[in-house]
Amino acid sequence: MSARDEASHWLRTHLADLHTGLDALLAEADRIDSWGAHLAERTLAGGRLLVAGNGGSAAEAQHLTAELVGRFERERVPLSAIALHAETSSLTALVNDYGPDEMFARQVAAHGRSGDVLVLLSTSGRSANVVAAARAARERGITTWALTGPAPSPLAQECDDTMALPGRSTSTVQELHLSVAHALCAAVDAHLRHDVTAEPGAQDGTHAPHDGRPRVVVVGDVLLDRDVDGQVTRFSPDGPVPVVDTLGVRSSPGGAGLAAVLAADAAKVRVLAPFAPDPGGRELRNLLRPTVEIVEVPQEGGTRRKTRVRSGGQTMVRVDDGGPAVPRDVPVERVREALSDADAVLVSDYGAGTTLPGPLRDAVAAAAADRPVVWDPHPRGGAPVPGVTLVTPNHAEALGAAEDLGLTVVADDPGGLAQSLARAWEAEAVCLTLGDRGAYLARATGESAYVPAEAVAGDPCGAGDRFAATAAVELARGTSVVDVVNRAVHAATAWVAEGGAEGYRRRAALAGPGGAAHGSTPGSTHESDVGTDGGSGARSGSGTTERTPESVAARLRSDGGTVVATGGCFDILHAGHVATLEAAARLGDHLVVLLNGDDSVRRLKGEGRPVVGAADRARVLSALDCVADVVVFDEDDPTTVLDRLRPDVWAKGGDYTRRPLPEAETVRRHGGRVVLLPFVEGRSTTSILDRAPRSARPAAPDRAPATTTREARA
Fold first, then answer.
1. What is the DSSP-derived secondary structure letter of residue 38?
2. Contact 131/124 with Cβ under 8 angstroms?
3. Which GO molecular function entries does the Swiss-Prot or TrEMBL record give (predicted)?
4. For residue 671, what is the enclosing H or E element?
5. Residue 517 in contact with residue 473, Cβ under 8 Å?
6. Measuring CA to CA, which residue among 343, 303, 310 is closest to residue 324?
7. Positive/negative CA dihedral, 627, 629, 632, 636
8. Could you give the residue numbers annotated as active site?
9. Paired residues of 390 in beta bridges
10. Cα 253 from chain centroid?
11. Which domains does the chain have, with CATH numbers?
């Protein structure tokens, strides 16, 4: 083969290999985007990128720093990026004095800070100097990413995340690494805010200003939650136990990790927690990074995991393993720095030892002296530090704490119990949560306050984390403690109705990699936001619960009996409405009210209507004993939502006897029947609004007595 033929053969072989590698690289697009988002956030906040490699990998790494310090495809602020192999004087001195294995690790120790990012390139993943650099970075809380070739490697074991790219030759792998560098630059540019005009934050260890959202630091015990979804079709021949055939496995952050992700819906969140250097710890970091900043503390033992095996939506068994997850060798200065710019601190105690006496507890105690601290306790954890703003035990936790403290309390006096704990713990306030019975808020002196909750059907798992996360965000915003508890109860109620932690994880899975699970959040608990996005959705009285008409019907029918539906605007609920609703309820076992949304009312009634928003109207209706559920819809007539709800009876108020109802055919097509309910004469929202300007003088006598239940039935 001639030299010319050799070159042609090499090119054809190389291009085929490169094409295969690029196809594989395309599947890593989500991972590169996640890296870019994290790197953009950290560099804009004053962090820096460190890179290192040997030989050709050094050239690829230095290419990356050049694009970030300069620019890639468009103008932007310069970003701090340092190639550790490029400063020859320091490099040769380190090799001479410490040996080649330490040439990068020593520089990581000198230049790296908690929150920085280290990218290491090695086609083999076995170069001792890059492996040592990864270890040094981990000890300092630096995020580490590796670009390697296809084989498992020591470098991959030491890094938080690794892209192991296929290639038959070193040259192919190196060219793929360069493609990753360019794609990473594109991702960084895409995630940088377009309105940034200032330089990144100072490089002296101070925190850069954030984007106006409150800053919450979550301190606690992170867990890895795993859900094994499957189906049971047989029993094991070895014993009378069901066999679950696995259909899929889902992982998500638990414990303090879940609380942090929930708080991140409405705040800038930093997690300060022990992480294990094991596969579970790396998985947790990867799950959290797209949403929160991580400041790691070394821990003793492996990652704590809770694995639920589920079939048909029901948990068959839960298996817990890992731990003990006790923090060790706590970097005191890094912990203090992580807490220094917090608008509020949330202590999420899951009994692993984070809150026991030691540097972490001491740092939280110091923070409690000058900023709000929410303490979500655990029976195996330490007691709240003096001066915390709000402690949030449930009833069982409160009784256990009172017993440990030797307090004399009355179990059925939650307000008194909360007040006794507030005195003993030297806390500003204690909020004792009672699930669907609401919460009692008490200070060391004065009377306790009761905050009711609506009883909703759903999964309470994770409701405590939702409550605590909402409380921390609201305190960070400067909200008063009473309003904080009101909003936290409201958010926890909506969380339960939306399916709890399992519902949240399923929504997150549907959102895709890096996606947020939509639902009740600390930033979306205001009822004025409800019912304005079009479509049909069921609402509990909390005003924020999004379910489908189909799920409402299924839930009610599972209790047995017939489903009756009626509908209307119900703007300013009056006696005529109540009479109609009571009459409709007696036509079956469960009454569902189809409520016109705000846009629908406006189109039907004109500008200025509704007087009362959809969320408030839904809440008032849900409070009536005769109403089982409320579904808000924004179409002009209920035909579409009736097609989904499929009631057994459609009860319509008004005089429609001389003309057909447009929705009647839909009801009958699904086997339902239509019943008309005459309006109560003289009772209407319009007449009430017409009389309102004349309210300075006595109202005219009612033209007709209110219809009684017996009259309504007749």
1. H
2. no
3. kinase activity
4. none
5. no
6. 303
7. negative
8. 465
9. 374
10. 10
11. 22-191 (3.40.50.10490), 215-235+242-511 (3.40.1190.20), 526-713 (3.40.50.620)
CA separation for the pair 13, 676 (Å, rounded): 79
Summarize the confidence of residues 414-433 as an average pLDDT: 95
Determine the angle formed by the axes of helices 481-497 and 463-476, rounding to 10 degrees.
150
pLDDT at 686 over 70: no
pLDDT in tens, 84-135: 999 889 999 999 999 999 999 999 999 998 889 999 999 999 999 999 999 9
695: exposed, middle or buried (Cβ count in 10 Å: 0-12, 13-18, 19+): exposed
Count, residues in the chain: 714
Contact 118, 142 (CB under 8 A): yes
Answer yes or no: are the C-beta atoms of 67 and 189 closer than 8 Å.
Answer: no
Q: What distances in angstroms separate CA 191 from CA 35, 39, 85, 125, 143, one per listed residue?
A: 10, 9, 28, 29, 18
Q: For residue 422, give both structure tokens.
A: 């507030």
Q: Tell me what percent of the chain is helix, strand and coil, each rounded to the nearest 5.
A: 40, 20, 40
> Cβ neighbours of residue 30 under 8 Å, at least 6 residues apart?
512, 513, 514
CB of 467 within 8 A of CB of 492? Answer: yes
Amino acid at 217: V
Q: Characterize 425-443 residue by residue with b for buried, 16 or more Cβ atoms within 10 angstroms of its Cβ, and e for exposed.
A: bebbbbbbbbbbebbbbbb
Whole-number average pLDDT of the chain: 84
How does pLDDT run across 254-285, given as a tens digit for each residue?
Answer: 999 999 999 999 999 999 999 998 889 999 99
Q: Find, among 249, 134, 137, 180, the residue nearest to 31 by Cα.
A: 180
Q: How far apart are CA 34 and CA 32, in angstroms?
A: 5
Task: State how beta strands 563-568 and 344-348 pair.
Answer: unpaired
Task: List helix spans (H) across 306-351.
Answer: 332-339
Q: What is the DSSP string of 626-663?
A: T--EEEEE-SSSTHHHHHHH--SEEEEES--TTS--TT
Query: What pTM, to 2 d.p., does this model score?
Result: 0.55
pLDDT digits (tens, 9 = 90+) for 442-461: 999 888 888 888 878 888 99
Give the DSSP letter string of 240-300: S-EEEEEEEEEEEEEEHHHHHHHHTTTSEEEEEEEE-SSHHHHHHHHHHTTTSEEEEEEEE
Cβ pair 135, 109 in contact under 8 A: no
Q: Rg for the chain (alpha carbons), in Å?
A: 31
